[in-house]
């Protein structure tokens, strides 16, 4: 009887797949501790669906990297058996650096691993050429880091308005700054010696809201950013939509019915020129409310009881609500987060925004979770998102 050929054994799982699985599992464990900690390993296993052995392994790796630590007080289960030693995020060793480049100034900041701002500084632009702007940002970060000896920076997150290509770390186009194809990751990395992640500020704030803000747990989130730049970002099932070359979220030239402001594109009534802080301040100056180009001076005047300032902010919030309503019609998110100065500071502006959105959907609309630190959080959230997505790759051992 002839011998039969040996059966063909299944090919081993590619190592890349094993690596992806480990990375995903480590991310799930770290985010579970962020959201629920201090928490026992057995609870992490129940929350994540991972096996107890896998949870123990990942917790050990994350603790070795200084990202997790055991909580001081062990807990007993119903008073019997071995005590459970809960794990918590170790927010005492490391920091991340955040950079937000706005039109009038750059915000530099240091954040802990919970997204809390430890230190920050505003650097007003003398000019907006990318080289000097990024050089000053690097110098500003170095100064902040000198004030917190013993805390190690894991990386730098940069948030910018306009069209930002996350994959290459490039600002493709920012009309108001005059930036075109600026290799921010390369330039700032060379000056800081740290890993650099770059993203658009609306997307950065979606990451911040999902990690540390009131949108945590939402299945889909729309973020609408209304500053000098007006843009949006959308996240569904923990994934932010980027589109080809990260061009998603460009809403600056959406037409506003009845809009009167001329736009550089040649049309009239584009969303960004109608809602921008430049337009707000110009209207406030024309009305004698302020004598500057600082939108916070309009906020201060409104807080002091100036009815014209209050009306300007309420009208802007209402127009923002109409824009949010259009985006709600298209994307139907569970939660809408709006970053806009009037909505952040005045309840009647928030009410005007929600009224314009419509009563049946107004409860889904909330102001930013970071009213006092939104730009600092935007920058830091870019690198914190990278950390929580791949803690084995972006933690100290990976750099």
TrEMBL record:
Keywords: Kinase, Transferase. It comes from Streptomyces capoamus. The lineage of its organism: Bacteria, Bacillati, Actinomycetota, Actinomycetes, Kitasatosporales. This is Sugar kinase. One of its GO terms (molecular function) is kinase activity. Belongs to the ROK (NagC/XylR) family. Pfam families: ROK. Residues 1-24 are annotated as: Disordered.
């Amino acid at each position: 009887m002839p011998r039969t050929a040996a059966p063909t054994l299944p090919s081993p799982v590619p190592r890349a797949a094993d690596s992806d699985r480990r990375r995903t599992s480590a991310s799930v464990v770290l985010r579970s501790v962020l959201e629920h900690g201090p928490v026992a390993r057995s609870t992490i296993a129940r929350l994540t669906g991972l096996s107890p052995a896998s949870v123990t392994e990942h917790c050990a790796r994350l603790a070795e990297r200084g990202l997790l630590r055991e909580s001081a007080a062990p807990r007993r289960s119903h008073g019997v058996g071995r005590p459970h030693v809960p794990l918590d995020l170790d927010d005492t060793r490391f920091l991340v650096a955040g950079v937000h480049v706005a039109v009038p100034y750059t915000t530099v900041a240091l954040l802990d691993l919970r997204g809390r701002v430890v230190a920050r500084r505003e650097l007003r632009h003398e000019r907006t050429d990318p080289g000097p702007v990024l050089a000053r940002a690097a110098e500003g970060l170095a100064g902040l880091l000198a004030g917190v000896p013993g805390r190690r920076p894991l990386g730098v997150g940069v948030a910018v308005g306009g069209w930002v290509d996350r994959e290459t770390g490039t600002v493709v186009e920012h009309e108001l700054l005059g930036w075109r194809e600026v290799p921010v990751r390369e330039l700032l990395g060379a000056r800081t010696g740290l890993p650099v992640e770059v993203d658009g500020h609306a997307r950065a704030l979606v990451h911040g809201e999902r990690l540390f803000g009131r949108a945590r747990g939402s299945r889909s989130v729309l973020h609408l950013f209304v500053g000098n730049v007006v843009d949006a970002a959308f996240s569904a099932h923990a994934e932010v939509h980027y589109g080809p070359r990260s061009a998603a979220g460009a809403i600056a030239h959406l037409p506003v019915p009845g809009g009167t402001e001329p736009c550089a594109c040649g049309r009239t009534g584009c969303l960004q020129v109608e809602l921008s802080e430049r337009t707000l301040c110009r209207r406030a100056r024309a009305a004698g409310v302020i004598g500057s180009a600082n939108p916070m001076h309009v906020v201060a005047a409104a807080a002091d009881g100036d009815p014209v300032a209050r009306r300007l902010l309420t009208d802007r919030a209402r127009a923002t609500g109409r824009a949010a309503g259009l985006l709600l019609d298209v994307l139907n998110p569970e939660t809408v987060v709006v970053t806009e100065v009037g909505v952040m500071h005045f309840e009647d502006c928030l009410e005007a925004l929600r009224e314009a959105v419509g009563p049946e959907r107004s409860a889904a609309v909330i102001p930013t979770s970071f009213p006092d630190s939104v730009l600092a959080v935007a920058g830091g959230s870019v690198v914190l998102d990278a950390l929580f997505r791949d803690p084995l790759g972006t933690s100290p051992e990976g750099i």
